[in-house]
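Quick entry between incubations.
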Amino acid sequence: MWTFFHKLGSPPWLYAIAGVVLRWLLPITLIALVGGMIWGVLFTAPDFRQGNSYRIIYVHVPAAVVALAGYYVMAIAGAVSLIWRIKMADVVMKAAAPVGAALAFIALFTGAVWGKPTWGTWWVWDARITSMLILLFLYLGVIALYEAFDNKEAAGKACAVLSLVGMVNIPIIYKSVDWWYSLHQPASIKFTGESTIDPSMLYPLLLMIAAFYALFTCCLLMNMRAELLQRESRTQWVKKIAAKEGKR
Amino acid sequence: MHPVRKQRLYLVLFVALFSSAAIGLITYALRGNINLFYPPTEVVSGEAPIGQSIRVGGMVEEGSLLRADDSLAISFTLTDYQASVPVVYSGILPDLFGEGQGAVASGVLSDEGVLQATEILAKHDENYMPPEVAYALENSGYDKKGKTK
Amino acid sequence: MYFDSFQALLTMNGHGIYVWPAYLVTIVVITALLIAPMRRRSRVLRQLAGELKRAQSASDSGAKGER
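Done. Structure below.
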């Protein structure tokens, strides 16, 4: 058990194991993404009220769900790097930020496009949408803050504190539709009780959510690998890899 | 745990706790402003300001929707099944707008308690199903939430 | 397949202009997310390989000069 954690702190081991995971996970992710999109767009019936516009759910909900989960990954990695000063935690935090930002952007964009035909407006300042926009700004803030520091150790600490403070926003996003009167409807997939979405529409949605989780993992690992190479560029193991793969 | 790490852990918990408390207090203080709309009950009880632009949200009452023959003008009542607010509006409506559906109307409340709406948004619920399933449910005497009517 | 024709799939009863851009933007963002770290990795490796080569040739010529 402890040797596993010690190995996690070893860059060459982490780089290699991430490479092995990616070799399998990346093709599976792409197949699941393409398959889920085709299932959702071509092979499901339209909604009884919204018609075909509801098909946006298959990218909107997964992107939003994983953007929220990704924030936990970033904030917890930040806390670990603050408390235990583990360098790899800092790498995870930095690698998660751009992926989370991109997913939050997808959720907001597809939500706006979905809102026009169903609600009658692209944008409304209700609690759910505004708190989701704050999530995007928190991700962008972490990215910008990291770039703003010349001293990368100080940058890591500042970003960790910012992501910890921003964690307050996550339960607000989850609960916003229950706590306040908002235009956005409550969640359709429920952990307790029956989901209010028909099974024929639920299964492709669950597939897409799984695919987006896998996508997040892939992007996280790929960002970590690139970051590790850059940070460790003066070490022997990176030089060995560069001599082998860098000729192209 | 190492005392220095313990100290840092407490610091992290402190930051997380106090930022939550700060945001919690702010959202509590602003709770009225975070609500996108007033429910009809609050409008009828006089909590909504008159003569200012506000939003009222609820269900479009069955049988209340009247359309003018020669213009886009419509009138209906918004209800939360405890109180209702009459709304008049003229303009384009979202596709999902209809009787028995949720809607949010923004406009100015007149002295008589009628909302002169300038924009209507449709609010939909969290139920998704194919049309055949909805039709079958309707015929079997269940409503869309799967409960008996 | 749910749709009867390609035309119906494109228009989606008037909702195609909303559904397709939503999917298009999603696919573009996902592609960018996947390609950016790949390009960054190969750039770092290429740069390092170049440095290594230069260091190699410098030490080679240095060794010759000593003779």
